[in-house]
Design brief:
The complex is a heterodimer.
Chain A lengths: L4 E3 L2 E4 L5 E6 L6 E7 L6 E7 L2 E5 L6 E5 L5 E5 L8 E8 L9 E2 L3 E5 L1
Chain B lengths: L2 E3 L4 E5 L4 E3 L2 E3 L5 E7 L5 E7 L5 E3 L5 E5 L4 E6 L8 E8 L11 E2 L3 E6 L1
Parallel strand pairs in B: 2-12
Antiparallel strand pairs in B: 1-4, 3-9, 5-6, 5-10, 7-8, 8-9, 10-11, 10-12
Classes of the chains: A mainly beta, B mainly beta.
């Protein structure tokens, strides 16, 4: 989606290493959602933030943590990486003030754990 | 809990033929409904959405979808497909707006669309 930036786009890590994924939102969009999409799978919700506070939590492993900063960008931190963490990670941005409820997805970060 | 079912894992259609992708949802109230398209290794692009009002919604790329409350369905249609429509299609549901940041999307398992000449 136009305006949502995720970095890096590709990341290769070894087992037990750590990774940090970043998401930069469209200006004035204050909610962020993280999703994980395994190979051949549908995206699964991990965690969300509204106004820098965690608002909802899904099937996110305890090894993962996330936060939203004052400039509304968000980071997903992943530790003790496992082979099963290899996936495409999306962030999606929402605007709480918009009457047209919609989430704008970033292009994703492809994480490969070897 | 909300859930989405896409009964067709893979559909093959001839170029120029019509298309219908099925989606059924389970939710206690009227949810927000979406269709997304994903090309291989790419992000998710929103095709169309339904919140309320007219049950037939128009989207981008010539797609439309019809919300049928009685059938808990939100099927995606296109009258004439193009080779560039080959992709994975996901139906998704979100709860009606309650608390900000709680409108997580629940996706169906997707339907892979193949177009043959």
């Amino acid at each position: 989606a136009a305006g949502v930036i995720q970095s890096p786009r590709h990341l290769i890590k070894e087992k037990r290493e750590t990774a940090t994924l970043k998401c930069y939102p469209i200006p004035r969009h204050d909610t962020v959602y993280w999703y994980q999409q395994g190979p051949g799978q549908d995206p699964q919700f991990l965690i969300s933030f509204y106004e820098k506070m965690q608002s909802d939590k899904g099937s996110i492993p305890d090894r993962f943590s996330a936060q939203q900063f004052s400039d509304y960008h968000s980071e997903l931190n992943m530790s003790s990486l496992e082979l099963g963490d290899s996936a495409l990670y999306f962030c999606a941005i929402g605007d709480s003030l918009s009457s047209s409820y919609e989430q704008y997805f970033g292009p994703g970060t492809r994480l490969t754990v070897t | 809990a909300q859930s989405v079912t896409q009964p067709d894992i893979h559909i093959t259609v001839s170029e120029g033929a019509s298309l219908e992708l099925r989606c059924n949802y389970s939710y206690g109230a009227t949810p927000y409904l979406f269709w997304y398209v994903q090309s291989p290794g790419q992000g998710l692009q929103l095709l169309l959405k339904y919140f309320s009002g007219d049950t037939l919604v128009q989207g981008i790329k010539g797609f439309e979808a019809e919300f049928k409350r009685s059938q808990s369905s939100f099927n995606l249609r296109k009258p004439s497909v193009h080779w560039s429509d080959a992709a994975e299609y996901f139906c998704a549901v979100a709860p009606g707006r309650s608390n900000f940041g709680n409108e997580k999307l629940t996706f169906g398992t997707g339907t892979r669309l193949t177009i043959i000449p």
